[in-house]
Amino acid sequence: MTKQTDNGYASLAPDAQGCYPYTEDDRTVWGTLFTRQMDALQGVMVDSYLEGIATLGLNAGNVPQVVDIDKRLNRLTGAGVEGVPALIAPTRFFNLLSDRKFPIATFLRRREHMDYIEEPDLFHEVFGHCPLLTNNAYCDFIERFGQQAQTLGKGYSWHMFRLFWFTVEFGLIHTKDGVRAYGAGIGSSPAEAENAMNGHAEVRDFDLMDVLRTPYRIDIVQPVYFAIESFEALTEALDQDLVALIDQAKSLGDHTPLFDQAA
Ligand SMILES: [Fe+2]
Q1: How far is the CA of 240 from the centre of ligand 1 (A)?
Q2: In angstroms, what is the span from residue 124 Cα to ligand 1's centroid?
Q3: Which GO molecular function annotation, any one, does this entry have (predicted)?
Q4: For residue 9, is it within any domain?
Q5: I need a surface site. Which of 10, 12, 15, 133 has the fewest CB within 10 A?
């Protein structure tokens, strides 16, 4: 539990009740992030995400505890969350997802990283990922994704992470009100929320082969997003022969990146 991230964030240890020791300073950081992001997300995120924030009882006054979210999700969708160190192995990651459980890094960013942090922290994990875990169709996708990634094994992980990136992290969805976002990287970042909706980034209809061949960079706002029709359709896409599709994506090669290769 002493492993540190590049920015010096160490994993937190829970007490006997499973609660993490957040400080008064953490409470202020959480409250500031929560209030700012709630203002930024109206008309950006899909309704079920915004409803999920209320359903989970997330608010500006308290840093949420993983155990409380886990209990609520268990009752609502049979999903759950588990506190993990900031960096976990892909096998553990996929294993948790296949159990309908989402891994949650539990440290919270410091003030100097208020606007951007490369590592997923508690705000990204809880505010970004957990609201949609109140939605059964979304949880079905998460579970199916985990099962498939686990079955496919190491040689296919890289492409499965791409699929994860362009859906769970930065996915858009067509709604009756127009395109909205459901990805956690958009939900938890003001810059990404603005970028996804300002019309400057490319928005493509979701196509699995297209996604599998599209490279990404983790340290910039995204130049391209993919919009799904529904979570059900996304899950169905995973029922295809992924071995054959990923092999084909590998032999066709990657699309030319829409970003500079060098940082
Ligand atoms: Fe994430």
Answers
A1: 25
A2: 6
A3: iron ion binding
A4: no
A5: 15
User: What are the Cα distances from residue 67, in Å, to 104, 148, 186, 233?
Assistant: 11, 27, 25, 31
11 domain residue, yes or no: no
Q: Which residues of the chain are modeled with pLDDT < 70? A: 1-3, 261-263
pLDDT of residue 28: 97
Among 134, 257, 127, residue whose Cα is nearest residue 192? 127
Whole-number Å distance, alpha carbon 121 to ligand 1 midpoint, is 9
| 202, burial (CB in 10 Å: exposed 0-12, middle 13-18, buried 19+) | exposed
CATH number assigned to the domain comprising residue 82: 1.10.800.10
State the pLDDT at residue 27.
97
Q: What pTM was estimated for this model as a whole? A: 0.95
159 in a labelled binding site: no
Residue 14, in any domain of the structure: no
The reported pLDDT for the residue numbered 3 is: 61
124 in a known ligand binding site: yes
Q: Cα–Cα distance between 158 and 249 in angstroms, integer?
A: 12
What is the spatial distance between Cα 51 and Cα 133, in angstroms, rounded to a whole number? 11
Distance 189 CA to ligand 1 centre (A): 11
The count of structural domains within the chain is: 1
Phi, psi dihedral angles at 204 (to 5 degrees) = -110, 150
How confident is the model at residue 118, as a pLDDT?
84
Could you tell me if 222 and 126 are in contact, meaning their C-beta atoms sit under 8 angstroms apart? no
The answer to whether residue 214 is domain-embedded is yes
Could you list the residue range(s) of the whole structural domain that residue 174 is in? 24-252
